Amino acid sequence: MKQKGVLVLEDGTIFEGTGFGVEGYQTGELVFNTSMTGYQEILTDPSYHKQIVTMTVPHVGNTGINLEDVESSKVWVSGFVVRSLSPIVSNWRSQATLDDYLKSQGIVGISDAPTRTIVRHIRSKGAMRAVVAHGELAHNTNALLEIARASQDMSGANLVDDVTTPEPYHWHTASDSQWYQHTENPESPLIVAYDYGIKHNILRMMADRGMRVTVVPATMTADDVLALNPSGVFLSNGPGDPAAVTYAIDNIKNLLGQVPVFGICLGHQLLALALGGKTEKMRFGHRGGNQPVKNLLTDAVEISAHNHGFAVTSDSNLQGGEITHVNLNDNTIEGLRHTGLKAFSVQYHPEASPGPHDSLYLFDEFLDAVKSGNPAEKMG
After folding, report:
1. pTM of the prediction?
2. Which domain holds residue 105?
3. Which residues participate in catalysis according to the annotation?
C-alpha cells in the first residue's frame, strides 16, 4: 500500500509525493544531480553525506542495484527524491530493487515528486536545508518545517570526521578487466591516500595503474604520512565545508614540497586553502555527469562529472600556483597546480563511474609525474 511522502524546505515550500524506502524522516541540504545514469554510485558517494538528492532524470530504479558498483560501504545520502520510481527492474547484474536497497540502508525516499519544479526552486533560491518524510509524520508539515529549520547548515560544517576511515588500510582491488584495461607497473609506487570521504573508483583507478595504495584517516599527521615513505600523496573527495577541516589544511601545508600531491574535489579545495586561497559556498553547486571544463594548458574541453557545493574563489592568492582548468558554464575554478611545491588538483571527478571518461588521463599523468618527482610539471 502506497504511503504519503513529503519534502519540506526551510523556506516553507512543501512538495508532496509517494514515500518509498524506510518510513520516518531525515534532514539534509537539498541539492539536485543531472546525471542520466549511476544513481547507486550517487547514493554511496560519501560526498553526499547530510544531503537530500533530487534526480533530474525522470525514471530511476530501472536497472536495480548491484553490489559491485558502489562507491563505499554504505548509502550516505540523507534522502532521495525522484519523479518516477520504476516498478520494473531490467538488468542482468541487478541484485535488489532500489526500494529494497534504501529500506535495508535506512534511507527515506519519495517518488511521484515534481522534480522539475524542485530543481527550478533550488536554482532560484539556492540549496537549502530540508526534511524528507515517509509515513505518519508526512502528514504533520508544521512539525517537519521546524525540524528542517533546526537542522545543521552546510556552511561551517566539518563532515569529514563522520566519513573518514578510523584506521589505515591497504587497497588492492583493481577494476573488473572487462570494463577497464589494467597497466603493468613493475615500480609499484606507494601512494598514501587521505580519506576525506574517498570513492572506491578513485582507488580502483590507481590500482589499475599498478600503484600501491595505503588509505589513511583524515587526521593522520604529515609526519606520520611521511614516515610511510610514499612516492606521492592523494587528497580525496569528501563532504562539507572545506574551510572547517582545519587539521587537513595544516597537514597539507606540511606536506607541500616534500612529496608530489594530487587532489580531487574536496582535496582540490583543501589544497587551495593550504596555498593561501579561499573557498566559498556556491548558490546551488555543480552535481552531474555533463559539466564542460576547459583545460587551459591544452585548450581541450572535457565533459566531466561533478559533485560539489563549494568552490575556490577567483580572487584567491595561491602563492605561485596557477589556474589550470575552468568551468565553461560559470567560469569557476576547476583545477590548479603549483610546480614549485609539486602539487596539482582538479575540482571535478576524473574517476567518474559510470562516466564520462574524458579526464581519466589525469591518473596516468599522476603516475608518470610521481615517477619524475613532480606531478605539476606533467599536467596537460
Report:
1. 0.96
2. 3-150
3. 265, 349, 351
